[in-house]
């Protein structure tokens, strides 16, 4: 096959740049939905796999081009993987509650939850001693090979512990609340470079790149 362009079903600049960099050795051009004048699909899947597939299938149906999408989240094992699919919405709600209750002026679009985040304090009390947590990413790739439409899913999981109070100011989202197994720093304390070597997203992306090398 000769794949020259991949549509990335995301408008997140960080993700677009990360994937552009990874695929640059293969001479592949990455286009976002926005580049193509397309809106976002409704993510109403029941898990990360379904949501990533919904996005990649949408981009493929609209463009006919090989399409890639990811979906990720933070999961607390003893809470049946909550917040999971709701990670983004739950994070915004926590920051809003923190502003409302504590009068702290936290930008609800930024990452840091604050040392005394009420939501995370409640979660910490609820889960007791079992702090096991993980991040998951699913990457879906939909493309046409001859006349066959292929759909591949690549998963990356990084296991560790929920940390309360949150620690560190780098990264984004739940990074201050998560310490990967075998480390003594949270994702937000270790810095992006170290995090990116072991993260759920890099594991899934590495699997995708291995696959891509074989089919391109
Ligand atoms: P997305 O599917 O990659 O946009 O991730 C959904 C939500 O999961 C984000 O808004 C974050 O709250 C959370 N999340 C996903 N990956 C990470 C990560 O690497 N660090 C911290 N939070 C993350």
* Helix content class: 25-40%
Find the structural class using helix and strand composition: alpha/beta
Shape: elongated
User: In angstroms, what separates the terminal alpha carbons?
Assistant: 5 Å
Tell me about the largest β-sheet: 7 strands, mixed
Average of the residue pLDDT scores? 90
Radius of gyration: 18 Å
Q: What's the number of helices?
A: 7
Number of strands: 7
Heteromolecules bound:
inosinic acid
Low-confidence stretches: none
> What sequence of helices (H) and strands (E) makes up the elements?
EHEHEEHHEEEHHH
- How big a fraction of the residues is strand? 15-25%
Would you mind describing this structure in some detail?
The chain has helices at residues 13-23, 48-63, 87-102, 118-127, 187-190, 192-198, 200-215, and strands spanning 5-8, 29-32, 67-76, 82-83, 132-145, 148-162, 178-180. Strands 1, 2, 3, 4, 5, 6 and 7 form a seven-stranded mixed sheet that branches. The chain contains seven helices and seven strands; from the N terminus they run βαβαββααβββααα. It is of the alpha/beta class and 216 residues long. The mean pLDDT is 90. Inosinic acid binds at residues 71-74, 87-88, 91, 135, 171-175, 187, 199.
């Amino acid at each position: 096959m000769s794949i020259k362009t991949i549509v990335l079903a995301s408008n997140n600049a960080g993700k677009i740049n990360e994937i552009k960099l990874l695929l640059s050795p293969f001479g592949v051009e990455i286009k976002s939905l926005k580049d193509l004048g397309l809106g976002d699909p409704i993510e109403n899947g029941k898990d990360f796999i379904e949501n990533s597939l919904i996005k990649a299938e949408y981009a493929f149906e609209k463009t006919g081009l090989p399409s890639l999408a990811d979906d990720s989240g933070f999961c607390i094992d003893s809470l049946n993987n909550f917040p999971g699919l709701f990670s983004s919405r739950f994070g915004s709600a926590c920051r809003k509650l923190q502003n409302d209750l504590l009068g702290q002026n936290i930008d609800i679009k930024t990452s840091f939850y604050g040392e005394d985040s009420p939501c995370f304090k409640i979660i910490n009390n609820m889960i007791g001693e079992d702090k096991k947590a993980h991040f998951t990413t699913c990457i879906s790739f939909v493309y046409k090979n001859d006349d066959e439409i292929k759909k591949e899913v690549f998963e990356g999981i990084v296991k560790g512990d929920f940390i309360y109070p949150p620690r560190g100011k780098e990264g984004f989202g739940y990074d201050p609340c998560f310490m990967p197994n075998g480390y003594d720093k949270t994702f937000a304390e270790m810095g992006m470079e170290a995090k990116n070597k072991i993260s759920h997203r890099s594991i899934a992306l590495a699997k995708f790149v291995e696959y891509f090398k074989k089919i391109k």
